[in-house]
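Reviewer comment 2.1 asked that we show a complete input and output for one of the modelled complexes. We chose the (2Z)-2-iminopentanedioic acid case, as it is the one discussed in the main text.
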Amino acid sequence: MNVEKIMNDLEKKHPGEVEYLQSVKEVIETIEDVYNENPQFEANGIIERLIEPDRILTFKVPWTDDQGKVHVNLGYRVQFNGAIGPYKGGIRFHPSVNLSILKFLGFEQIFKNALTTLPMGGGKGGSDFNTRGRSDREIMRFCQSFMLELWHMVGSETDVPAGDIGVSGKEIGYMYGTYKKLAQEHTGVFTGKGRTWGGSLIRPEATGFGAIYFAKEMLATKGDSFKGKTVSISGFGNVAWGAAKKATEFGGKVITISGPDGYIYDKNGISGEKIDYMLELRATNNDVVEPYAKKFGAEFHAGKKPWEVKCNIALPCATQNELNGDDAKQLVANKVMLVGEVSNMGCTPEAVETFIGNKILFGPGKAVNAGGVATSGLEMTQNAMKISWVAEEVDEKLHQIMSAIHEACVKHGTDETGYINYVKGANIAGFLKVATAMVEQGVI
Ligand code: 2IT
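Response of the prediction step:
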């Protein structure tokens, strides 16, 4: 495999799709050796087949606001790779959504899902719709219009969407309701469903909890733990909430959260009711964290990111490329010991290079945040069996899965000095599983 040639060809084919090209480059750079050691991969054109999605649906989503004005958004579903199971991955509603972002997310999802040990292929979808400030009725009409197009493409054995940024229980409910009406069936076609209609316990907490279970294992490789560590978190959504809850439970002290308006620094620690206040803030649908400062007497830093605050552990939980090379240098100068991407591709390539170059414990999103989709996989299992597990059972399985992912990273990512390159480990472990399935299933 010639990484440079593959990237040049891909850039020519998909000019300007920066996030997608960034995510492909990171993977192929780290799997190059394994790829070349196994001639059957080249013989079966695995990399060329893996970096292009199986198919993409693009559609128009017209909807009417509460004043009667008509709006038109764009909708997408990227079915990236189905070698090991039905396509699986979230739906993102955010004004920044475009094909490049959904292709990067779908591509990452292939490896992440493979790492979970469950049979799920990779996919992603979404729209440039902005839920901020929209009423429930507007969101419902939008979701219904979105599903009028998407329903043909999804199904419990073909493609199972879930939530992501801008899509939580409410949106899943409206989308699932529309699917059910059109398909006239009640199957597990979405995950993240409500508790009374097929949803799994622990799914809302799963991404954040799983990330902390994974970070705990990373710390254990150094004989360390969360006890007494300061933890910087970005974001204030569902994922940040789950991470803050579990990190606090394990004895860590969460000192920051953030929103598009800036970040909160709470030197007393964000715990107890302060963590649940995040959900209240989110529910206002204004996308701001500033009210936290007034309510709990903490500092608010307008327009800034939390990475300037000294901390032991940094967990980006907001969105892609939210932590850049300069942020990474600042964190390293402040003696950060662990950085875990809870958001997908939360760190820029420069930041990742800085962390790995300084031998910081660095966990990539594919591994760290895989607990969300893993628990979606557990929701699919429960739906297929038409039963519901108690919270402890789901949580225990989630814990086991995160340990298995950590083990896979250690196996494939440990270098001759004993340093664990989790980026390499996660990419190789995920790749080997999918590539082997593709070889065995033939060129198709
Ligand atoms: O990025 C992700 O893994 C998700 N948004 C969750 C996907 C899922 O299918 O639960």
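The longest strand covers residues 70-81. We note this here for comparison with the apo prediction described in Section 3.2.
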